[in-house]
Design goal:
The protein has 426 residues and is of the alpha+beta class. It folds into three domains: 77 residues, no CATH class; 219 residues, Hypothetical protein af1432; 82 residues, no CATH class. The chain is built from 14 helices and twelve strands. Helix 4 crosses helix 6, helix 9 runs antiparallel to helix 10 and helix 11 packs across helix 12. The radius of gyration is 22 Å and the shape is globular.
Amino acid sequence: MTDIHTQFIELSQLRIGMFVYLDVGWMDHPFPVSNFKISSQSQIDTIRSLGLDRIRYAPDKSTAEAESSKLASAHIALKEQESADAYDARQRRELLANQQASLQICERQFSNAAQTFKQVTEIAHAQPTLAKELAEKLIQGFLGQILGEDEAAIRLLSEKAGEKTSLHSINVTVISLLLGQALHLSKTDMLDLGIGALLHDIGKIELPDRLRWPDEHLNHAERQLYHDHVVHGVNLARKMGLTPNAMLLIAQHHEHADGTGYPGHLPGEKLSPIARIVALVNHYDNLCNPANPALAVTPHEALSQIFTQHKLRFHVPTLTAFIRMMGIYPPGSVVQLTDERYAMVVSVNSMRPIKPKVVIHNPSVPRDEAMVVNLEHEKILCIHRSLKPLQLPRAAYDYLSPRKRLCYFFERGLEVGHKTEGGAAT
């Protein structure tokens, strides 16, 4: 799969021949697909009516007609004039705006997904068929993103993007679908995986509020009541008419390959392939986002703990693919680079996870103007070690603002190349 370089433009600059991306939900635009080449003025008029401020387009996939427009000419002229080894102030502002816009798109899509998930849980009893339709449409939208032409990356969002009741389910869904793609699941299995992952904890709506997020203080009777959320979830899934494969996922998402899980204590060979995925991802997210934030571990620690302490609980090929996909330093990891500067990982390309994108502590640059640096394009600079947030010097901690809750979503495509602080293109 090739990288598609995209950039943001104003709607007034749209031209016939441009290959554009509509970063909104499938129900929020009238086109049959979300990325296409503009072929008529009527399509431009329709796009301008959607209420968007800016839109992404891919110069490399656009025709000569579009590239001969004033926008492309101005862009080429600007590139010719700029120094190859220094930032131009205007270029930096544009890149920063693109970077912020890309993050805002992810956070808006996460917010829309959270609203849909909340609606599904609210109507699951009274309108189970509609709840299923909403869940399917949401997952189909997700699949449209990760199975498209652009490579999908795992993006760390700000803490404001998620709230407790939806964050876990959407995190598990996003990571599970990317892992399913890495394991080359069929489209049918991917749909079942997405729906099952989204609704794996839906049985918790039958529990008292205080039992929905278990902690170490639950007594034996309370813990047994909590375990019952699996049975409640299967009953709701049956009422909604989910596929047998999706229902089996919900039934098995707390089972372990070594037979120590619940409710059936099933051995690994009896677990469905998609249940193995969600059981692993569910455990990872619970380590990073526990009910008691004081017990949270870093993403790097979570992977290490799963591999060193709980490896027997999980299907080995699934665990291997998961670690390969997330990289050694998943999004949210606080790290020290080989030049001794501190940074936070904000994005990992699931196809190339070795060198992620990071925000680097740089006192000379205001925090809200910090550029994301793609270590993949750095010849020398790389990550030296992982740190706990409290190991950071105070200035670096305040600058990087490590997340107390990790919130993930898909990030599509790559930004137009630019210079990093070290001088290499990203």
